[in-house]
Structure to design on (287 residues):
């Protein structure tokens, strides 16, 4: 059962958005809903192991000034119930069911990393549901290096533990002066919410999602030419998790695709250049 809808104006901040829950086929899905009512809502799909508090507040707030924004959790992640799926296919079907349960006939999607895999699959499975698509730090099924995300990530996660730094400093940002400053600012933004924070991911869910990522990397390529809607693709020029060449590949294969590559940036290029990204994305969604 959906919790009572709290209407938030364009001045609402993500750090203060209430935690909501809706039952979808017997599973409770956690989400947050903010921004002005009316128009096509923007649904956010996040990265491996991410909970609601891993969405960048500057990006969410930037969108919510103009658009209704729905931030969601995958099944088995954070406060969402159930067991985390081990395929992108299952995550996409969950997201379609969630969107329909919320009563939306048409949405825009923004998928970051794993969320980009899911967003592509949603668009191919339910083309009637998606108006515009934003893919960031992501790649296609069978993309270069995607099955090695775990092999690339574990040493950097260990490095984070040994240096007492959040591993996202190494996973999402380059080890340049600009990258280090951007990483620090991003991680500070993720701490802005002081109350009613989401639950962290359990290790089992984290590992099950990694299985889904590996399977996506080994999957046969999809026919991205079937995506006939406008698509905005963004990444950094040196993505160590999902190699940047995958963003170029998606842009080449989707007829109405626009590509933005940020210099001196990595997997989290949209966080490093959040103001520019929000401006470009809002223009894209409003065109």
């Amino acid at each position: 059962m959906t919790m009572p809808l709290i209407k938030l104006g364009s001045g609402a901040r993500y750090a203060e958005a209430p935690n909501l829950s809706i039952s979808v086929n017997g599973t409770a899905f956690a989400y947050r809903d903010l921004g002005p009512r009316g128009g096509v809502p923007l649904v956010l799909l996040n990265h491996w192991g991410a909970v609601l508090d891993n969405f960048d507040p500057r990006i969410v707030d930037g969108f919510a000034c103009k658009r209704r924004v729905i931030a969601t959790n995958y099944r088995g992640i954070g406060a969402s119930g159930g067991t985390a799926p081990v395929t992108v296919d299952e995550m996409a079907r969950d997201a379609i069911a969630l969107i329909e349960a919320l009563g939306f006939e048409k949405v825009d999607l923004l998928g970051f990393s794993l969320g980009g895999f899911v967003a592509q699959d949603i668009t191919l499975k339910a083309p009637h549901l998606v108006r515009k698509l934003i893919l960031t730090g992501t790649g296609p099924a069978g993309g270069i290096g995607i099955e090695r995300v775990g092999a690339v990530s574990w040493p950097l996660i260990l490095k984070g533990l040994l240096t007492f730094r959040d591993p996202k400093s190494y996973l999402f940002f380059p080890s340049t002066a600009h990258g280090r400053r951007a990483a620090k600012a991003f991680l500070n933004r993720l701490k802005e919410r002081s109350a009613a924070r989401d639950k962290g991911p359990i290790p089992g869910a984290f590992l099950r999602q990694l299985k889904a990522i590996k399977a996506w990397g080994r999957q046969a390529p999809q026919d991205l030419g079937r995506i006939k809607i406008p698509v905005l693709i963004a990444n950094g020029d040196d993505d160590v998790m999902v190699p940047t060449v995958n963003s170029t590949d998606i842009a080449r294969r989707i007829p109405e695709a626009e590509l933005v590559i940020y210099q001196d940036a990595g997997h989290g290029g949209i966080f490093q250049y959040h103001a520019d990204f929000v401006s470009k994305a809002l223009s894209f969604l409003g065109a």
In short: The two ends are 35 Å apart (CA to CA).
